[in-house]
Design a protein that fits this description.
single chain; 172 residues; alpha+beta; Aminopeptidase; seven-stranded mixed β-sheet; 33% strand; Phosphinothricin N-acetyltransferase, putative; Acyl_CoA_acyltransferase; GNAT_dom; transferase
């Protein structure tokens, strides 16, 4: 497996992975699939803001997963806190793709000087919760029944990883 920065040529693969997750998983709390133009807008927005979009390729060069991060919340006081996402092609789940992508996002966030990385995870997704624990994320909250998908109430688990040991934030 090889990790690299995503390019516009990867957008059809990212769209396929995203839309599969919308249709089959509780990870993305919407029933609306996206178009290629929707993914392009998302991709261009991430890149314009200086946020990474990375892909994992298999030995044949096929995109089998992607990850990114962006702002946790829009207010300036959250400027050093990020929320990340990682999605893997269902045919390659369980093979370390998600782990490799999450590890790389943590490295990039640290290198970019961010302080906290947040994971917002469906409360039933024990695999993702366990993966995050492997990297030192701590569960900081569970919000019961705040989402709906597939006709069910969903709990949101918030997990955080403090990326550095700064005792005080930098001056603005």
């Amino acid at each position: 497996m090889h990790l690299r920065d995503a390019t516009a040529a990867d957008l059809p693969a990212l769209l396929a992975i995203h839309n599969d997750a919308v249709r089959t998983l509780k990870a993305i709390w919407t029933d609306k699939t996206e178009t290629l133009e929707d993914r392009r807008t998302w991709f261009d927005g991430r890149r314009a803001a200086g946020f990474p979009v990375i892909v994992a390729e298999d030995a044949a060069g096929r995109v089998v997963g992607y990850g990114s991060y962006g702002p946790f919340r829009a207010k300036d006081g959250y400027r050093l806190t990020l929320e990340h996402s990682v999605y893997v092609d269902p045919a390659t789940q369980g093979r370390g793709v998600g782990k490799a992508l999450l590890k790389r996002l943590i490295e990039l966030a640290r290198a970019d000087g961010y302080h906290v990385l947040v994971g917002a995870i469906d409360g039933e997704n024990e695999t993702s919760i366990a993966l995050h624990r492997q990297f030192g994320f701590e569960t900081v909250g569970r919000m019961p029944q705040v989402g709906i998908k597939f006709g069910q109430w969903l709990d949101l688990v918030l997990m955080t990883l403090v990326l550095d040991n700064r005792s005080e934030p930098p001056s603005a």
